[in-house]
Amino acid sequence: MNQYWWALLGAGLLEIGWAAGFKFAFRDDHVITAATLAAMVASFWLLSIAMKEIPVGSAYAIWTGIGAVGAAVVGMVFLKEPATVLRIFSVAAIVGGVVGLKLSAGPVA
Fold it and tell me: What is the extent of the structural domain holding 58?
């Protein structure tokens, strides 16, 4: 995996952080709000680096897929959100789509 894919992975992981952080941001704890905003900026910055070499459609879909799956897992594991069979199946389908996009993106020029 080259630096652009690593940047995309980092961007996706930061997206999980800021997506989960939104649940608690903009309340009384300004540290959480600042951390959420910082994670958002860093996530977009890393995504922009990744898009220099990874096709835009693949990069964006993989970025949102990592964020969606991660946020759903964080919600189910840490925030006591429902973990129904349909929800777990849907998350698995997103993972399958992300893997398919990664495999179909081809080598970076």
Answer: 3-104
Locate 40 and state its tokens: 């958002």
Domain membership flag for residue 16? yes
Name every residue whose Cβ is closer than 8 Å to that of residue 55 and which is 6 or more positions away in sequence: 105
Mean pLDDT in residue range 11-35 = 94
In a domain, 43, yes or no: yes
User: What's the number of domains the chain is made of?
Assistant: 1
Burial of 5 per CB tally in 10 Å (0-12, 13-18, 19+): middle
Residues 6+ apart with CB under 8 A from 109: 53
Record the pTM.
Answer: 0.87
- Show the tokens assigned to 69: 């799956």
Is residue 109 scored above 60 in pLDDT?
A: no
Query: Alpha-carbon distance 6 to 78, whole Å?
Result: 26
Tell me whether residue 109 is in a domain.
no
